[in-house]
Specification:
Strand order of the largest sheet: 1-2-3-4-5-6-7-8
CATH superfamily: Aldolase class I
Number of strands: 8
Distance between the termini: 51 Å
Largest sheet: 8 strands, parallel, barrel
CATH topology: TIM Barrel
Strand content: 5-15%
Shape: globular
CATH class: Alpha Beta
Number of domains: 1
Helix content: 40-55%
Low-confidence stretches: none
Radius of gyration: 18 Å
């Protein structure tokens, strides 16, 4: 079956945070305000319930309801991509079917990270029925070895996978192996999309030929990445490099405060979109940390 209205992704795809209330329940109402914020930027789409969205800390029902809320709140103003990766193949199939039914623009999935595939064939066999459950949508392999612990050949997966997964559109490449990224881009005469995954390395991905990225920091500093995309398009490396250094300054700060999910969520609150705390085992942000974070961001001119 052919993919419905398939168009390659371009520009910024924001990896969204999942908002929680003070009791740790999903705060669906925040998504409407969040979607309006996204729509007023140059962000082209959102990647829902991935790593940034704390996917494996959510129930299947929560993930389905979150996707529904994003699709309705987006109201066709930007693309909505559903992360459907699970350790359970059957749960992933359920999420794929739901994403297709609800009208998501695409789906993506991480490799299972508890019992891990030993080889590329195992990974293909795991994904094939999941992708088939959303056969009219583009399917992206979300490659993030630092989280999943699955360090299998991405080019081999794409080349072999397409033989049995006809809607395999490409890969979200969240890895620092730039040689492998380049292989994926040139594989089979450029047959596959490669989505840049590490925000602090966007300039490198674009230099290899990437045209889209999925990132968590796009949520709150989109103008910096807009600057990178525009500068690289006209080969203004000096300007692109200056914007990338600004991005790295922010990434260094969120690492200081517990990483892209914990620190990033706190920044969302500072810019006016309160996504609450993360779910345990990621511990809550303290009032003092918010003050210190705000001071650090002021020093580099990110907040007023």
């Amino acid at each position: 079956m052919k993919m419905k209205n398939y168009q390659r992704l371009k520009g910024m795809i924001a990896a969204t945070f999942t908002p929680f209330d003070v009791k740790g329940r999903v705060n669906y109402e925040v998504i409407e305000k969040y979607a309006d914020w996204v729509a007023n930027t140059t962000i082209e789409g959102v990647f829902v319930c991935g790593t940034t969205g704390e996917s494996l800390s959510l129930t299947i029902i929560e993930r389905e309801k979150i996707l529904e809320k994003w699709i309705s709140s987006a109201n066709k103003r930007f693309k909505v991509i559903a992360h459907i990766g699970c350790n359970s193949q059957f749960e992933a199939i359920e999420l794929a079917e739901h994403a297709k039914k609800m009208g998501a623009d695409a789906v993506g999935a991480m490799a299972p990270c508890f019992f891990k595939p030993e080889n590329v064939s195992d990974l293909i066999n795991f994904f094939e029925p999941i992708a088939r459950a959303a056969s009219t949508l583009p399917f992206y392999y979300y490659n993030m070895p630092s989280i999943t612990g699955v360090f299998l050949s991405a080019p081999q997966f794409l080349h072999e996978g397409l033989k049995v997964i006809p809607n395999l559109a490409g890969i979200k490449f969240t890895h620092n192996n730039l040689m492998e990224m380049s292989e994926c881009l040139t594989l089979d005469n450029g047959a596959f999309e490669v989505l840049n995954g590490y925000d602090e390395m966007l300039i490198a991905g674009l230099s290899f030929g990437v045209v889209a990225g999925v990132g968590s920091t796009y949520n709150y500093i989109p103008k910096i990445y807009e600057g990178i995309f525009k500068a690289m398009k006209i080969n203004d490396i000096e300007t692109a490099r200056a914007f990338q250094i600004r991005s790295i300054e922010v990434v260094k700060i969120i690492i200081k405060y517990g990483g892209g999910i914990r620190g990033g969520k706190a920044i969302m609150k500072l810019i006016g979109i309160d996504c609450g705390d993360c779910r345990l085992p990621i511990h809550p942000f303290s009032k003092n940390e918010y003050k210190l974070l705000n001071t650090d961001l002021k020093l580099i001119g990110i907040v007023n």
